[in-house]
Amino acid sequence: MDRSGVCELCGDEILVPGPLLPMSAHTCGRCGRWVCNGCGGYSLGRGYGIEDESRYGKICKECYYELQGEYAAKWDVEFGAEEKARGVENPYDLSEEENEWRSRVREYMARRDGQEQES
């Protein structure tokens, strides 16, 4: 049975024709969104993420960034002052990349929702 649709995050078309073709879509183990390869399949498996990876499995990019933000805050509380004094940066801090990606996704969603209301 063919499944096709649109990525719930970026809007790219997704086509999953059957078991013989490589996976081109993922369902987020945390939020349940159906997303394309570019927006899904993220792994949390290091440091604080080990427990969450066993709980959620592969997740979407938005959930990944949300959890990385939580881990960054935990790292700052636990190690921040000492490590920053030694010149070590927070390994979970993805703020620049996250902000750029989220702004692009929000622009897409605003356009998408505007088009749906016009129809």
Record the SSE blueprint.
Elements: E1 3-6, E2 13-16, E3 25-27, E4 34-36, H1 49-56, H2 61-85, H3 95-118
Antiparallel strand pairs: 1-2, 3-4
List key phrases describing it.
48% helix; single chain; 4 strands; 3 helices; two-stranded antiparallel ribbon; mainly alpha; globular; two-stranded antiparallel sheet; 119 residues
Summarize the model shown:
The chain is mainly α and 119 residues long. The protein has one domain (3-114). The protein has helices spanning 49-56, 61-85, 95-118; strands at 3-6, 13-16, 25-27, 34-36.
Describe it for me?
There is one protein chain. With 119 residues, the protein is mainly α. It has one domain (3-114). It has helices at residues 49-56, 61-85, 95-118, and strands at residues 3-6, 13-16, 25-27, 34-36. The strands form two sheets. It has a two-stranded antiparallel sheet. It has a two-stranded antiparallel sheet with strand order 3-4. The mean pLDDT is 83.
**Structural class by helix and strand composition:** mainly alpha
Which range does the strand content fall in? 5-15%
N-to-C order of helices and strands:
EEEEHHH
| Main sheet makeup | 2 strands, antiparallel
- What's the pLDDT, averaged over the residues? 83
Largest sheet, spatial ordering of strands: 1-2
Cα-atom radius of gyration: 17 Å
Note the overall shape: globular
Uncertain parts = none
* Number of helical elements: 3
Overall number of domains: 1
Measured distance between first and last alpha carbons: 29 Å
Give the proportion of residues in helices: 40-55%
Number of strands: 4
